[in-house]
């Protein structure tokens, strides 16, 4: 198996760059069986996921990744990311934690499971 | 297909509710028994430190000061399996909250990601993978 940390790092960098620049571009990273939990709201399937992400009223978002952990799991890669979210015009960052389970597909990986939570009170 | 997914989600949710309650209760009040929730095959990453299996991990956590965890939120997804609905399959569980160690004056936020596997002997779950981070 390829170096897990390199795979996860590449993926995480690409994911947040795409999210911040053009959320619709995230579609190809999901499949019909992908599941997303965003702040407790659950969706399944690439189209529904992208619709959900595009509908979030968060413009000019920037993710700053603080930590990224990767482990091989269940035939794929389990990634835990923590970091900060900055919306344009806001000076206070929000902290977030996001959990991905990546599965191999051809030469690359897709997101089978995605769980996002904001962390309050920091 | 949709019905069996719903059943998987329901079974996983109940399993997750029970697991979260037991895990942090044991961690805080009965740490020596926490090892029952892990196996020698468990893969643990604790704030960047890797432990292969419960034995080295138990050595580590038994040295931590006593803790008090407060869980703010958790999410779980069932992982696709071929087990029949109503029979628990594996799940991914993400917990966030804060923890206060007795040797520190302020609580820390944490995020913990588990992959849980069913234990066929008693219908509960054990930790297949564990990734813990302070936020």
TrEMBL record, chain A:
<protein>
    <recommendedName>
        <fullName>Nuclear transport factor 2</fullName>
    </recommendedName>
</protein>
<feature type="domain" description="NTF2">
    <location>
        <begin position="7"/>
        <end position="118"/>
    </location>
</feature>
<keyword id="KW-0813">Transport</keyword>
<dbReference type="InterPro" id="IPR032710">
    <property type="entry name" value="NTF2-like_dom_sf"/>
</dbReference>
<dbReference type="InterPro" id="IPR018222">
    <property type="entry name" value="Nuclear_transport_factor_2_euk"/>
</dbReference>
<keyword id="KW-0653">Protein transport</keyword>
<dbReference type="InterPro" id="IPR002075">
    <property type="entry name" value="NTF2_dom"/>
</dbReference>
<dbReference type="InterPro" id="IPR045875">
    <property type="entry name" value="NTF2"/>
</dbReference>
<comment type="function">
    <text>Has a role in nuclear-cytoplasmic transport of proteins and mRNAs.</text>
</comment>
<keyword id="KW-0963">Cytoplasm</keyword>
<dbReference type="Pfam" id="PF02136">
    <property type="entry name" value="NTF2"/>
</dbReference>
<keyword id="KW-0539">Nucleus</keyword>
From TrEMBL, chain B:
<dbReference type="InterPro" id="IPR032710">
    <property type="entry name" value="NTF2-like_dom_sf"/>
</dbReference>
<keyword id="KW-0963">Cytoplasm</keyword>
<comment type="function">
    <text>Has a role in nuclear-cytoplasmic transport of proteins and mRNAs.</text>
</comment>
<dbReference type="GO" id="GO:0006913">
    <property type="term" value="P:nucleocytoplasmic transport"/>
</dbReference>
<dbReference type="InterPro" id="IPR018222">
    <property type="entry name" value="Nuclear_transport_factor_2_euk"/>
</dbReference>
<dbReference type="GO" id="GO:0051028">
    <property type="term" value="P:mRNA transport"/>
</dbReference>
<protein>
    <recommendedName>
        <fullName>NTF2-related export protein</fullName>
    </recommendedName>
</protein>
<keyword id="KW-0539">Nucleus</keyword>
<dbReference type="Pfam" id="PF02136">
    <property type="entry name" value="NTF2"/>
</dbReference>
<keyword id="KW-0653">Protein transport</keyword>
<dbReference type="GO" id="GO:0005737">
    <property type="term" value="C:cytoplasm"/>
</dbReference>
<dbReference type="InterPro" id="IPR045875">
    <property type="entry name" value="NTF2"/>
</dbReference>
<dbReference type="InterPro" id="IPR002075">
    <property type="entry name" value="NTF2_dom"/>
</dbReference>
<dbReference type="GO" id="GO:0005634">
    <property type="term" value="C:nucleus"/>
</dbReference>
<dbReference type="GO" id="GO:0015031">
    <property type="term" value="P:protein transport"/>
</dbReference>
<feature type="domain" description="NTF2">
    <location>
        <begin position="15"/>
        <end position="134"/>
    </location>
</feature>
<keyword id="KW-0813">Transport</keyword>
């Amino acid at each position: 198996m390829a170096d897990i940390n390199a795979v996860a790092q590449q993926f995480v960098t690409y994911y947040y760059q795409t999210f911040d620049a053009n959320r619709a571009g995230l579609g190809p990273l999901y499949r019909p069986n992908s599941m997303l939990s965003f702040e407790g709201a659950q969706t399944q399937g690439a189209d529904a996921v992208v619709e959900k992400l595009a509908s979030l009223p968060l413009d000019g978002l920037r993710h700053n990744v603080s930590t990224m952990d990767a482990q091989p799991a269940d035939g794929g890669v389990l990634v835990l990311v923590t970091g900060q979210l900055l919306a344009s015009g806001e000076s206070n960052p929000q902290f977030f934690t996001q959990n991905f389970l990546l599965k191999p597909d051809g030469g690359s990986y897709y997101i089978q499971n995605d769980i996002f939570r904001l962390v309050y009170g920091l | 297909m949709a019905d069996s997914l719903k059943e998987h989600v329901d079974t996983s949710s109940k399993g997750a509710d029970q697991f979260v309650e037991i895990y942090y209760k044991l961690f805080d009040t009965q740490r020596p028994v926490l090892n029952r929730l892990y196996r020698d095959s468990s893969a643990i990453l604790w704030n960047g430190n890797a432990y292969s299996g419960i034995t080295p991990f138990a050595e580590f956590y038994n040295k931590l000061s006593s803790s008090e965890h407060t869980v703010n939120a958790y999410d779980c997804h069932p992982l696709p399996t071929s087990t029949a609905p109503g029979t628990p399959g594996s799940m991914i569980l993400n917990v966030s909250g804060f923890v206060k160690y007795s040797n520190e004056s302020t609580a820390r936020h944490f995020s913990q990601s588990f992959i849980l596997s069913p234990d066929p002997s008693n219908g509960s779950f054990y930790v297949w993978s564990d990734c813990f981070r302070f936020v």
